[in-house]
Amino acid sequence: IGGNSGHPNGDGQIGGSVGAITLNNVQLISNITAFGGNSSVGSGGAGGNISIINSNILTSLIIVNISGGMGLVANGADGTFRLNQTAFYNSNGSIRFSYVSTKNLTFNSILSIRNNSAYVNSTNYLDYNVSANVTLCNLPMTFANPVILKDGVTCGSSCYNFTSLNAGTVIFNVSSWSNYSIGEVPNYPPNVTSVS
């Protein structure tokens, strides 16, 4: 959906603005475009607001454009992308965010789901540093003492699992973002205190 190009409006022309789009319970595998219209003499139109609820987005295929239109006087405002209980997924698993409201849409820079690894770049994309359910698929089922690892260290109370950590498909919750995986309890060197 795109805003129309400029139409007469008082003294000049304003690019068309896009309204709101809501998608509920969908499997999203193609692009979404909701950009504002351009104006050669006035202001660009506003980009659309997109809400995706209880849905799944295939990470390798999706491109979202909510940019405002270009204008001679001013560019239109970018729209907002909202996720509510929506998952990004691929064959290695998924990340289901509780709620995200953002203008950051470069998904290949924001998140990664690989073999036994779920990562969100929460340092550069703070909007995505929210609670989420993580599913990791095709994991080994031979761990002696499996734990959820956050950056290679036991996650502790900020994570909890819904399934056995020795299942081939593991589902767990995280309260904030970094790099998560399933592994053995780390073997830390003993703390030695010298007594004289």
Structure description:
The protein has 196 residues and is mainly β. The protein is built from one helix and 18 strands. The protein has one helix at residues 107-110; strands spanning 7-9, 12-14, 20-24, 27-28, 32-33, 49-53, 56-58, 64-65, 81-90, 93-102, 111-114, 117-120, 132-136, 146-150, 153-154, 159-161, 170-174, 179-184. Strands 3, 4, 6, 7, 9, 10, 13, 16 and 17 form a nine-stranded mixed sheet that branches. It is elongated, with a radius of gyration of 22 Å. The N and C termini lie far apart (77 Å).
Please provide a brief summary of the model:
The chain is mainly beta and 196 residues long. It has 1 helix and 18 strands. The strands form 4 sheets. Strands 3, 4, 6, 7, 9, 10, 13, 16 and 17 form a 9-stranded mixed beta sheet that branches. The chain has a 5-stranded antiparallel beta sheet with strand order 11-12-18-14-15.
Fill in the keyword field for this structure.
196 residues, mainly beta, nine-stranded mixed β-sheet, five-stranded antiparallel β-sheet, 1 helix, 18 strands, elongated, disordered N terminus
Radius of gyration in whole Å, from Cα?
Answer: 22 Å
Average predicted local confidence, pLDDT: 85
Low-confidence stretches: 1-12
Number of helices: 1
| Percentage of residues assigned to helices | under 10%
Biggest sheet record: 9 strands, mixed
Any idea what the shape is? elongated
The helix/strand series, from N terminus to C terminus, equals EEEEEEEEEEHEEEEEEEE
Proportion of β residues? 35-45%
Q: What is the terminal-to-terminal distance? A: 77 Å
Helical/strand content category:
mainly beta
Count of DSSP strands:
18
